[in-house]
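Researcher: Next entry in the queue.
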Amino acid sequence: MTGPERLQKARLYVVTPDRGDELLDLARAALLGGADILQLRHKTLPRGELLALARRLREATTNAGAIFIVNDHVDVALIAGADGVHLGPSDMSIEAARRIVPEGFVIGVSAQSVEGARAAVRAGADYIGSGPAFSTPVKQEKAVIGPAGIAAVTAAVDVPVFAIGGIDESNLSQLTALGIHRACVIRSVSDAPDPEQATARLRAMLTA
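Model: Structure for this entry, 208 residues:
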């Protein structure tokens, strides 16, 4: 089964925080809790250390049967044997990345609007991260589009759309009530007293 095919079954997407030694333990806890996708996102780690961490997370996600995505860095993703990469607006374009990645390699991007999501899919995106669903300190510069905005994006494209931004156990039902059963989280897992159990509860809430 290819990466894009596996995406169809994915519900909970967990992104790692910019942390040090405990990041690996946190990732393993999220995988034990049932995370379908794990993304390595670390903005400050030197590239050599980022690659070493990516290789360890590749092993952990393989053992858990989860999809492994690297944020921003196509080269790190390829060398580590990741399933895919999430590209930001200042990263390599989707078209350029497609020229160097193998068949079945997953490429995801973020989109706040129907127009942006459709353009990304035309360019070759395999999935969309759409939000913010709710107010979040991580992306304060972005206007909240809310559950209704994400529902519109989901209806407009034929690839998986993961809601992102301020999602936790207190508000996830606002998304599922609109038929949105894919979510991407950071703090609701990384800041939880028990990340494994927090992941398990969120994953259960997303089961269609």
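Model: The chain has a mean pLDDT of 94.
Researcher: Noted, moving on.
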